[in-house]
């Protein structure tokens, strides 16, 4: 399926039958370097071509350093968070990745508070796997909860369309734009308060995800990078700052968000890579971010992909111990 975005006419989105962005898979189940990348808009890369996206650039970098066959699959979903990733992973096991890389940033904390309130079972069976419906599907006077058709739940295009809808047409939703996840950066506005509890809740599904990934024989790596307002004065991107309801002093340069993620991953024996220092070292950090959306620019994605590639070759996944955890590649 192809979807041309009207505001970025040069970009065409292809969603394959597995619900991933990109072409149909080769069908080979024994690809030595099959990597599945998961996460939100940063991974999906709606403003970028497939080749410019984070999975696309990582695949190119790995291929320059190995003769092995490489596939880096784009499993990103706009508006995603660890809770939704954990619920979706049983449907992704069939892809047989050797490595699962999940991007997490602090926007996932606010996404988690939205989706967690909608968590419910897919049917009346007490042992059924829970499903989390998008908030824009909830009516003002909801009746009995009904499961979505399977094809709708699994459609990345569906999720992307509603991610756009919640931003562009909030008046059509039956709930406020804040509840629909438009306020993904409230942690910046109130960064003087302690957000540890909310961050812990948002990270908790990663424990179950690690167990599910390792049960398939694969490895899990959690990665993070800054969002624009952690490095840039919001006044330099006034329209985006206004649209994302950023208030208060920026940049929000405290290390607390990154430390909270690192401490959780260390405690839960999850491999973690933090590239925030590498981003901070750049001469002009504004160039690393899109001016129209709260995501990385092509240059920022390239820097992120380079750091991930270096990490993987410096710390080969085959040598990992689940109890070992390292942070930032140098």
Taking pLDDT < 50 over at least 5 consecutive residues as the criterion, the unreliable ranges are 1-8, 122-126, 138-149, 165-182
Number of strands: 9
Structural class: alpha/beta
Instruction: Specify the biggest β-sheet.
Output: 5 strands, parallel
**Rg, Cα atoms, Å:** 19 Å
What global shape is seen? globular
Description:
The protein is an alpha/beta fold and 330 residues long. Helices cover 34% and strands 14% of the residues. It is built from 13 helices and nine strands. The strands form three sheets. Strands 4-3-5-8-9 form a five-stranded parallel β-sheet, sandwiched between helices. Helix 4 packs across helix 8. The N and C termini lie far apart (40 Å). The N terminus is likely disordered.
Give a summary of the structure in a few sentences.
The chain has 13 helices and nine strands. Helix 3 (82-88) runs parallel beside helix 9, helix 4 (107-116) packs across helix 8 and helix 8 crosses helix 11 (256-267). It has helices at residues 41-44, 54-63, 82-88, 107-116, 150-153, 156-168, 186-189, 196-203, 205-215, 238-243, 256-267, 276-280, 298-314, and strands at residues 2-5, 8-14, 33-39, 70-76, 99-103, 119-121, 130-132, 219-224, 271-274.
List the helices and strands and how they pair.
Elements: E1 2-5, E2 8-14, E3 33-39, H1 41-44, H2 54-63, E4 70-76, H3 82-88, E5 99-103, H4 107-116, E6 119-121, E7 130-132, H5 150-153, H6 156-168, H7 186-189, H8 196-203, H9 205-215, E8 219-224, H10 238-243, H11 256-267, E9 271-274, H12 276-280, H13 298-314
Parallel strand pairs: 3-4, 3-5, 5-8, 8-9
Antiparallel strand pairs: 1-2, 6-7
